[in-house]
Amino acid sequence: MKVVTGVFFIFITVVLYIGFKKIYERVRMPIFVPVVTTTLLLILLLLVTNTSYETYMTGGKWINELLGSAVVALAYPLYKYRKKIYHYRLPLFAGVFTGILVGFISGFVFVKVAGLNLSYSATFLPKSVTSPIAMDIAALTGGIPSLAAAFVVISGIMGAVFGPLVLKIFHIHHYLGIGVGYGSAAHGIGTAKALEYGVEEAAFSSISMTLSAVVYALILPMAIHYLL
Q: Which of 73, 120, 191, 214 could form a cystine bridge with 205, CB 3.0-4.6 A?
């Protein structure tokens, strides 16, 4: 029965996402980003039906298993746009480095000010990395992988919702700036948002997300070990 319930909820997840995506394509308001609306409705549905997260994940784990493959597939834009990457190598790496630095500093400042223990700190800090890597980092450093994935989704949603406003305020129109901003700050969800602007924006977003993920995976576990 638990397995049937899990499969049912994963089916509902896919249907809801497709439905809200079609709505978003017509409305185009940041608050209606499919990830936001689907997530909120799923939470409400789980609460109303008194269904546990563990039960939901009996089916949801299969989508989770696909995340790793999706991240690996993002290496394709690195190859396809290699000439533009080389041409914009300095601003690209400067932007990604800045994004990583801001993510590191803001994360460590927050956990220190909030007085979080090691477990919750290790869970929160990978917030700026794509979900599968964030979960692995959390597992390696004593955090809670499932909660780390939730923080990643929250940060991605915030980036997708407030990103257009930030870009407008700072008059950022070039595809490199848009892509690096979304990829560094909002990872996979940001990349999906960047695709709304164009293929080049999405490509540089996925490149930025991939580079950020590699750096975070190498440095963050050591930083958590020595700084917390």
A: 191
The tens digit of pLDDT for each residue in 38-89 reads 888 988 988 888 888 778 877 777 776 776 677 677 677 777 888 888 899 8
What tokens appear for 42 in the block? 């799923």
Give the chain's domain count. Answer: 2
Last residue of a domain, one of 44, 66, 88: 66
The pTM assigned to this predicted structure is: 0.81
23, 45, 66: which is the final residue of a domain?
A: 66
DSSP for 129-150 reads: S-HHHHHHHHHHTT--HHHHHH
CA separation for the pair 182, 167 (Å, rounded): 10
Q: What is the pLDDT of residues 198-213, one digit of tens each?
A: 888 888 998 898 889 8
- The span from the CA of 113 to the CA of 40, in Å, is 29
Neighbours of 118 (CB within 10 A): 14
Question: Among candidates 12, 25, 183, which has minimal Cα distance to 98?
Answer: 183
User: Rounded to a whole number, what is the distance in angstroms from the first to the last CA of the chain?
Assistant: 43
Residues 137-150, mean pLDDT to the nearest whole number: 89
Q: Are residues 92 and 116 in the same domain?
A: yes
Q: Which domain holds residue 48?
A: 2-66
Query: Above 70 in pLDDT, residue 22?
Result: yes
**Helix ranges (DSSP H) in the chain:** 2-27, 34-48, 53-73, 75-80, 82-87, 89-114, 118-124, 131-140, 145-169, 175-194, 199-227
Indicate whether 171 and 196 sit together in one domain. Answer: yes
How many residues are recorded in the chain?
Answer: 228
Q: How many angstroms separate the CA atoms of 182 and 175, rounded?
A: 11
